[in-house]
């Protein structure tokens, strides 16, 4: 029943950042968001990235998905430089970014229309197998029966759930979550943590979760990296050993409390002083 | 529903009232038909001479629709090119504004010079008049697509074409259809102008000839036909717009229908 707390030793490295620096803007208005950062993520691991606002968490995520190109250094995914790798990537942002002209079902089905190998079978299966798969996933996050609604007919929390489904529907090998639970109420959030964990145990994608919620990081992740701001850098890397599946009861465990407490202090120290304007 | 129904009744009453007032004022002040015919006379003329008017109406409609179709084809093409990159958009916009502020009537003589009087200049004038609203709207719709929506697609390694087909174009549809109802009216204006100046067919030409022979009721009959056609085209394209892009206005009817 218990999954290993972390990927086994000597597991295959799936994502690697090597001396990655990223600078936004050009010439006189430069912001160095990331400075000589190294990070390795094992295949099938679940990593949480925490740190003060503006420290470069989203930047790392965008570099790994190829949405940004590093100013210097290398980003590898599945042994190839990012962009060239044949890896299915799922991504969910803090805001739902659903397409308003599509129903929930069609929104969630979008990756199946784009990503191989599903893409080749899309027209044959979109009314049968794919539709069932999408509906099952919507059911799982509590959106059963809402498949033919449009995004604007739903609450923010419901849209956020749908956007999680969209990130998961094509069984991504690499899952990138940028504060996907940030805008939700506490109860919905905890409910989705449980669903997220369940899905991770079932499919074992490699997950990079960016979050501000330390409880969320400690509940979900196998490993927590803490970043500092200006210049953005990883300053702490902690393995989380609580057995799985974890329940919300774990958050009252003294070791859990001690862990979040320690992370909290690290982040306070890592925060840029209030008066330092970039 | 109720308020909307009442508004419609009021609009209809206003239109009917306008014609009734026209009729009554002409009768009261004994206005000659050679100056301003009464609506009843216009309708009688229209019915009596419909066999002569009809081919001209068909010609005008045909010219308008061909010009409009060409306008859509080229307008969408140019709009997609301009809207697909920030740079192209910024670079091309001033030129576009410059072109669109030329009074387009001025191009009719040029077309006549190139193609001779007839249907071709009329089709081209219709196209030129309707192309700008389409280009500007398509380009604006594409250029203002939220980057987050594109990021979702790019993370899935979608090609540029996939992004255009799945995000760019659908997101541009409300702009495109909003421009169509303006564009079709513009195409219509272009056709009639060109027909008036340089053609031997079409309602514009009919009205020209009727006015030079002081057949004033026929001139007004032509005007009535033009109004009917113009309104019909506008209504058809508004209806299509409503059906296709209801999501942009978040109408419940759209979700149901
Ligand atoms: N497009 C951009 N242009 C210029 N600077 C940017 C841009 N995006 C981010 N930055 C800067 O880079 C730094 C890191 O940004 P990033 O979005 O990665 O932070 P973050 O850790 O995700 O913050 P948050 O937790 O608030 O989301 C910030 O200081 C920000 O000002
Ligand atoms: Mg961020």
Describe the fold and architecture.
The complex is a heterodimer of chains A (278) and B (257). By secondary structure, chain A is of the alpha/beta class. Chain A folds into two domains: 1-87 and 174-182 and 204-278, 3-Layer(aba) Sandwich (Rossmann fold), CATH 3.40.50; 88-172, P-loop containing nucleotide triphosphate hydrolases (Rossmann fold, 3-Layer(aba) Sandwich). Chain A has eight helices and ten strands. In chain A, strands 6-7-8-3-9-10 form a six-stranded mixed beta sheet, with helices on both faces. In chain A, helix 2 packs across helix 4 (129-140). Chain A binds chain B through residues 62, 65-67, 89-91, 93, 95, 97, 99-102, 110-111, 113-115, 149-150, 152-153, 166, 170, 176, and chain B through 146, 148-149, 151-158, 162, 166-167, 170-171, 173, 245, 247-248, 250, 255. The complex binds adenosine-5'-triphosphate (ATP) and magnesium ion. Magnesium ion binds at residues 57-58, 178 of chain A.
Radius of gyration of chain A: 19 Å
CATH names the topology of the largest domain in chain A as Rossmann fold
Q: Helical amount among residues of chain A, as a percent range?
A: 25-40%
Total helical segments of chain A: 8
Listing every helix as H and every strand as E from the N terminus to the C terminus, the arrangement of chain A reads: EEEHEEEHHHHEHEHEEH
The helix/strand order of chain B is HHHHHHHHHHHH
Principal-axis shape of chain A? globular
CATH class of the largest domain in chain A: Alpha Beta
- Largest interface: which pair? A-B, 26 and 22 residues
The main pleated sheet of chain A reads as: 6 strands, mixed
Bound ligands, named by name, code or SMILES: adenosine-5'-triphosphate, magnesium ion
The CATH class of the largest domain in chain B turns out to be Mainly Alpha
